[in-house]
Specification:
Elements lengths: L1 E2 L1 H6 L2 E5 L4 H12 L3 E6 L10 E5 L5 H14 L2 E6 L14 H29 L2 E6 L11 H21 L4 E8 L5 H6 L5 H8 L9 H12 L10 E4 L10
Parallel strand pairs: 2-3, 2-5, 3-4, 5-6, 6-7, 7-8
Antiparallel strand pairs: 1-4
Bound molecules: NADPH dihydro-nicotinamide-adenine-dinucleotide phosphate.
């Protein structure tokens, strides 16, 4: 673990998975700016570990290592907020998708989220307070060449709604965010710049541009706020309007 232990003692703690790059990094930076201590589980460290950050090298697809890192963090920090952000894609259509793809994507996009929730629940329940945000995708609504990705992200919405019901009496809210095209390495590797399919996506955004990771982080911060206690089981799309109206 790399961290600044002094800051971690007094600040409210939040666990973010996949917080070293992309949307996850913007979430980590925003939550630190809002005064929280962030625990970041990622395979690789961020370019620089911040003063208000504790970085744990964790591959969230490896159940044993994930559970062990969770046990360590739960013992050290009072974590009542969780952002399940780590996600992988493996683009393929139904003819090319393999069950190996399915299991690999499920382990990161779904299983890790469930394991993190399970580990943090005792702390949230004893505080009678908790905030969980799952980063889904507008691909959950259906997207060609994304068979297992869309399947897992739709599954994350079912998980969000079911957790919202099961945990409501514990004062824990659970919501999902469905980003549209956001300028990150994941988007660029799945949608190569200049490719006709990429251009079609960008042309179909009503706001006429790609989104920025900070715009997703803003909604995450809002849903994690203690004042957001009457919003649960919802999915909000941060997509420049792409999910509104008829499909192109
Ligand atoms: P990036 O690939 O840019 O970043 C994902 C981060 O998660 C990386 O730091 C990555 O680490 C980490 N990660 C991936 N797998 C694991 C793992 N097994 N264990 C630990 N960390 C892991 O993705 P984005 O920032 O674009 O995506 C973040 C979330 O937003 C994902 O859930 C994605 O599905 C969702 N999303 C993104 C959209 C977009 O347009 N960008 C659109 C819709 C949804 P490493 O460097 O090791 O790969």
């Amino acid at each position: 673990m790399m961290s600044n232990q002094n800051n971690s003692i007094t600040k409210e703690a939040v666990l973010v998975t996949g917080g070293s790059r992309g949307i996850g990094r913007a979430i980590v930076e925003r939550l630190m700016a809002d005064g929280m201590h962030v625990i970041n589980f990622d395979r690789v460290p961020p370019l620089a570990v911040a003063a208000d950050e504790s970085y744990f090298q964790v591959d969230v697809s490896e159940e044993k290592g994930l559970r062990s890192a969770l046990a360590d963090t739960v013992a050290k920090f009072n974590i009542t907020r969780l952002v399940n952000n780590a996600g992988i894609v493996r683009p393929a259509n139904i003819d090319k998708t393999t069950t190996e793809d399915l299991h690999a994507v499920m382990s990161v996009n779904i299983a890790a989220a469930i394991i993190c929730v399970q580990a943090l629940l005792p702390t949230m329940r004893s505080a009678h307070f908790g905030r969980i945000v799952n980063i889904a995708s507008r691909a959950a609504l259906g997207k060609e060449e994304r068979i297992v990705y869309a399947t897992t992200k739709a599954g994350l919405l079912g998980l969000t709604r079911t957790l919202a019901l099961e945990l409501a009496s514990d004062g824990i809210t659970v919501n999902a965010i469905g980003p549209g095209p956001i300028a990150t390495e994941l988007f660029q590797s799945a949608n190569p710049p200049g490719a006709p399919a990429t251009q079609r996506i960008l042309d179909s955004v009503p706001l006429g541009r790609i989104g920025q990771p900070e715009e997703v982080a803003h909604l995450v911060a809002s849903l994690l706020d203690s004042r957001a206690g009457f919003t649960t089981g919802q999915v909000v799309y941060v997509c420049g309007g792409m999910t509104v109206g008829l499909s192109q």
